[in-house]
Structures are given as C-alpha cells and as structure tokens.
Design goal:
This protein has 75 residues and is mainly alpha-helical. The chain has helices at 3-30, 36-59, 63-74. The radius of gyration is 16 Å and the shape is elongated.
Length: 75
C-alpha cells in the first residue's frame, strides 16, 4: 500500500469522524422536536452509507480517494 493510499484512507476517516460529530450534534438538538423513530432511521441510513463508502475506499474502488492517492504519490 502506497503512502498516498494510506493518507487518503486517513483523510476519509477524519472526515467520517467530523461528520459523525455534526450528525450527533444535530440529533441532540432535534431530540425534543422530532420522533425518535425518525432520528434512529436517519442514523441507521447515515451509518450504512458511511460503511458502504468506507468499504469502497478500502477496496480501492472510490475514484476520488484513488485520485487523491495518486496526487499524493506524485508529490
């Protein structure tokens, strides 16, 4: 695995962490006004989407991650 690929995976993981923190903050803010079923459904959908993208990045199938890795390796 190249240095660019490792860095692209780390960038993806950092982005996931920031997005999850934002998602949890929004869910906490909406906890009183939106039903818990809707919040749970949104959280499950979000986590499934993140898992799908993470698998694509790790398998090398994500075009954006691959182009970022190639750019980093060229430098």
């Amino acid at each position: 695995m190249t240095k660019g690929k490792i860095l692209a995976i780390l960038i993806h993981c950092a982005g996931v962490a920031v997005a999850m923190a934002i998602c949890l903050g929004v869910m906490n803010a909406l906890a009183g006004s939106v039903s818990s079923e809707a919040l749970t459904g949104a959280a499950v959908f979000y986590c499934a989407t993140v898992a799908w993208v993470t698998v694509r990045v790790l398998r090398g199938q994500d075009r954006l991650a691959n182009s970022a890795a190639s750019f980093i390796d060229e430098k």
